[in-house]
Design a protein that fits this description.
Elements (H helix, E strand, L loop, with lengths): L11 E5 L3 E8 L2 E8 L20 E2 L12 H10 L9 E9 L5 E10 L9 H12 L16 E10 L2 E6 L1
Parallel strand pairs: 4-7
Antiparallel strand pairs: 1-2, 2-3, 5-6, 5-7, 7-8
C-alpha cells in the first residue's frame, strides 16, 4: 500500500517523573512543549482502540459528502447536554477524536479556550463527561476507504455559556 501522505509527529520526552510528563514536538518550524500532570480523577475506563491503517487519518471535511454524525448536531447536543456538569465561565471546548474503519472512536484530544480564543480551563468533570458521551455515539455513516485512508479525524466544538453547553459545531 502507498505510504503517500504518511506523516507522523515525533515527540521527545524531556521530563518524566512520577507525576509529570513533558513532551516536545515541532509543527512546521514552531517548537511546541506540552506538560501533563497525573490526574487525581478516576480514570476513564479504557477500551481497546486501534486505527485500521497506521497513517494520518483523513479529515472529516475532506470526504464527499462531509463525514458528519447521521442523527445530526441537535441529537448530539441534546444527548451530551443531559446530565452535563456545570462549568464556570464562557468559551469553547473542542474534543478531537479518530473514527476507525469499524466506526469505533478513540485517540481523544481536548482543547479549551475562552471567548477570545485564549487558553482556558474548564472542570475536569465536564471534560470527562464530554469524552464519555462522545465515546458512546454509534451512528456514524459509512465512508469510502482508499488505499491509504481508512480512518477519519473529527472534532466536536462545544460552546459554553454561563457554565452550560449551549451549542455545538461543526
Amino acid at each position: 500500500q502507498s505510504k503517500e501522505n504518511d506523516t507522523k509527529r515525533l515527540y521527545q520526552i524531556t521530563k518524566l517523573n512520577k507525576n509529570t510528563l513533558t513532551l516536545v514536538y515541532y509543527d512546521q518550524r514552531e517548537k511546541i512543549t506540552e506538560t501533563f500532570k497525573k490526574s487525581t480523577l478516576k480514570s476513564i475506563p479504557e477500551k481497546e482502540f486501534s486505527v485500521c491503517l497506521d497513517s494520518h487519518p483523513k479529515e472529516y471535511y475532506a470526504t464527499d459528502p462531509d463525514y458528519t454524525y447521521t442523527k445530526g448536531n441537535n441529537f448530539v447536543l441534546s444527548q451530551i447536554s443531559k446530565n452535563a456538569p456545570l462549568a464556570k465561565g464562557n468559551g469553547y471546548i473542542t474534543i478531537h477524536f479518530t473514527i476507525n474503519c469499524n466506526k469505533e472512536i478513540g485517540r481523544f484530544g481536548v482543547e479549551q479556550m475562552d471567548t477570545f480564543y485564549k487558553p482556558a480551563t474548564y472542570s475536569p468533570e465536564l471534560i470527562k463527561h464530554l469524552i464519555n458521551e462522545i465515546a458512546l455515539l454509534k451512528d456514524w455513516p459509512d465512508f469510502v476507504r482508499t488505499s491509504y485512508q481508512h480512518d477519519i479525524h473529527a472534532f466536536l466544538l462545544f460552546k459554553i455559556k454561563d457554565g452550560k453547553i449551549v451549542d455545538l459545531c461543526p
